[in-house]
Amino acid sequence: MSKRKKPSTVRHTRSNQLARQTKPPTPPPDEVTAARIKEIIHPATMAQVSYYHHLGLRERTLTLPVMVALLLSLVWRQFSSVNEALRIWQKEAHLWAPTIRVSQQAISERLRTLPAELFARILDDVLPQLQQRWKQRQRPLPEEIKWALTRYERVWAVDGSTLDALVKRVGLLRNLPDHPLAGRMPAILDVTSRLPQRIWRTDDDRAHDQRFWDDILPQIPANTLLLFDLGFTNFARYRQLTERNVTFITRAKKNLSYRRYRIFAHHGSVHDYGIVVDEGGRPLRLRLVEVYYQGHWRRYLTNELDPQQLPMLYLVALYWQRWRIEDAYKQVKRLLGLAYFWVGSDNGVALQLWATWLLYAVLVDLSDEVAGELGVPLADISLEMVYRSLYFCVNAIQRGETNNPVQYLAENAQLFGLIKRKRKPPALTRLNLTLHRKP
User: Fold this and answer.
1) Which CATH number does the domain housing residue 172 bear?
2) Which of 135, 164, 211, 161 is nearest to 325 (CA)?
3) Cα distances (angstroms) measured from residue 199 to each of 45, 184, 202, 342
4) 385: number of CA atoms within 13 Å, CB side?
5) DSSP classification of residue 332
6) What angle do CA 59, 64, 67 make, to 5 degrees?
7) What is the pLDDT of residues 338-353, one digit of tens each?
8) I need a labelling partner for 228 at 20 to 30 A (CA). Which of 4, 209, 235, 406 fits?
9) What residue numbers bound the domain in which 214 lies?
10) What pTM did the predictor assign?
């Protein structure tokens, strides 16, 4: 008998549909923010036109720049359907795309056939530029990140996330017994800038994180500190990371089989051991750190064997920064709407995914500039409230009160709730308060 598959718990489609249908679209961005989006994305779009022709695609009404503008507007303004966007498109321009009259069938065909790799290439061109803009700004960093950048060139996190269910009302999906999921998206995120470094997608919604190692490893440069969770546990890959001069921090399984060869610390709430695990018949040296925190022993693994190079306190605090990639997934899904798909075709889903990540990167860039204006870490700024507060910028610019959205947001940061409430002390402070207590 075949083993029964465990049903997925990712089933938000119906609630997302109802939420989209019961609220009006978000207003278009103010003219300054729209110009910002164009400045960042439009040159990268035009750079792909020659590749567009190389693929044998003809020029038509719905050109590549027009489709990029339409899809970005669909994401930014949270339209409930393509039809709703088309109705507005006949009266209002979408970013740099002028008003136009096309049929819903034409758009559907374009979403089905326009190669999604064009949008992926645009994102790949935009991200290094945004990373450079981040480096040029001045704003404080969390203490553990600031410390890490003195020893490593970059701090990255990697993780995978399951996409939500597709809408069954289109195409061949109508006859399926349930809502199929849209697949999985693994990503590499720069923890310091909050910008993605690389994103993939597979239509297999049951793909395990282990399947993504072959894609991830070539993307990780030497002298990187890499953070990942238990789903990526693989000692052969740990050896490869070590050989590439990549330091990692991850969690250790409860049933980890190992032999201790050295004790760095063993007191109170802290255990720090040098261990040897068996990897395919070959010994692999790692470091195991156990911390008693909030009533539980938490176990971490790293290939940095020197506690002077990576002290236990920073090791744990840096692993907690892995949650930044979970925040990014939450924002692209819930805030920017990647939990709701307009179409059921595989290509249409990929187009929406790349368009959403493009706007996420623009939103991070805008929020980082607000953080620089306020002189606070980007981690203290709520991306959600920055996105929602742009509504007030539209009205303020129309009233002639400002022509600088970043400055206007910074001046009204408290009113708009842009700075997150301090519910907990910083990670290093929390660890210092607890690590020397007896369990």
Assistant:
1) 3.90.350.10
2) 161
3) 18, 11, 10, 21
4) 18
5) I
6) 120
7) 888 888 788 989 999 9
8) 4
9) 141-327
10) 0.91
